[in-house]
């Protein structure tokens, strides 16, 4: 169960890194290109650290690269929140806010006690604090900005919010039961949204879910095809 | 606001079994420059955690990354192997350790002065409260311009040219400069 849980966290981070990489050269300003690349790099590093822990726990002889490059979409355990395209900057920052709030909480728990992922989590919790702060600053600036930026940020929130419950689904056997983080995660997110003058939607009764069980949207396969193509076309190649 | 020095342990220095050689192995390893901040060494940055040598002349080096995704780690590993091999050590084994997590509080005084002398503002002490709880990042600490010394500077981008640095601009002398972020 521990390996499955950590694989989910790792896949969230890897898919997020890949999505953030898309923004390089496309962000609203040069500084933001650099910021999103840096945040993506942190996420990539966290994914690598977690994959190393997972392969150790599994003991199946799989490597970090096997996990990243040689699995198909149904084998990935990331949440749906992170895999959908994010070609609108408001979506990018709203999603980062939700994900970073969740990651902050889960890594803080993992870093505070003995366990195989403690070292990765202890680094991650410090990095994610910067991601959360960066996302919050943008959500405030855009939400409480112009009429247009407010509208687009509200639309982004309305689109992303239904995917939050999947992160908080109960998993009592996991090293950290996500349901136990619910109040803490909402406690980080809601004040930012309120200050940004955004209307916080109701959490849906029947939210989209399935990522942790390998049931993904059609977007993940396309993302993986791009991310994995070189490794698959040239098996074992190094450079 | 009160700043608390971090209670985290400093990097240790074991001398292993071959005391004389291991000491020089430490010195050689500690002198490896950081690939992204070549004005400081990995000893200055506190990235070098431990160096031990066994009876057969093999050296075991422990390093810790600054950030999870720091791309310099592989270069540092290669540089350590090269430097120690050239110094006559027969086998060099570099291990990456994550726990306890690196903090900018481990940058030595010499490292801080070297950074500042090269126009990179060193980090303020990490707040005790910001540690494991991952609380809000404090952005209110004044950072002094390493060129003119003015505290009147502002952050242009929290994420700078490398993962560990932010980009700031001095309002007094108008120069942009890098700032090593407290973490």
Layout of helices and strands:
The complex is a heterodimer of chains A (239) and B (183).
Chain A: H1 2-21, H2 30-58, H3 64-69, H4 80-83, H5 89-111, H6 118-143, H7 147-160, H8 164-167, H9 182-195, H10 218-233
Helix pairs in contact in A: 1-2, 2-6, 5-6, 5-7, 5-9, 6-9
Chain B: H1 19-30, H2 42-45, E1 48-53, E2 58-63, H3 72-86, E3 91-96, H4 109-117, E4 120-121, E5 153-157, E6 165-170, E7 176-180
Parallel strand pairs in B: 2-3, 4-7
Antiparallel strand pairs in B: 1-2, 5-6, 6-7
Region (Disordered) (chain B): 1-22
Domain PaaD zinc beta ribbon (chain B): 140-181
Domain MIP18 family-like (chain B): 31-85
Report the portion of residues of chain B in β strands.
Answer: 15-25%
Radius of gyration of chain A equals 17 Å
What's the total count of β strands of chain A?
0
How many domains would you count in the coordinates of chain A?
1
Protein name (chain A): Phenylacetate-CoA oxygenase subunit PaaC
Pfam families (chain A): PaaA_PaaC
InterPro entries (chain A): Aromatic_CoA_ox/epox (IPR052703), Ferritin-like (IPR012347), Ferritin-like_SF (IPR009078), PaaA_PaaC (IPR007814), PaaC (IPR011882)
Organism (chain A): Nocardioides deserti
Would you give an account of this structure?
The complex is a heterodimer of chains A (239) and B (183). Chain A has 239 residues and is mostly helical. Chain A has one domain (2-199, 214-233): Ferritin, CATH 1.20.1260. Chain A has ten helices and no strands. In chain A, helix 6 packs parallel to helix 9 (182-195). The radius of gyration of chain A is 17 Å and the shape is globular. Chain B folds into two domains: 7-118, GMP Synthetase, Chain A, domain 3, CATH 3.30.300.130; 120-180, no CATH class. Chain B is 22% helix and 20% strand. Chain B is built from four helices and seven strands, in the order ααββαβαββββ. Chain B has helices spanning 19-30, 42-45, 72-86, 109-117; strands at residues 48-53, 58-63, 91-96, 120-121, 153-157, 165-170, 176-180. The A-B interface holds A 31, 34-35, 37-39, 41-46, 48-49, 104, 107-108, 111-112, 118-120, 122-130, 132-134 and B 65, 67-71, 97-103, 130-137, 139, 156-161, 163, 167, 181, 183. Chain B: Residues 1-10 have a biased composition (Pro residues). Chain B: InterPro entries: Fe-S_Maturation_MIP18, FSCA_dom_sf, MIP18-like, PaaD-like, Zn_ribbon_PaaD.
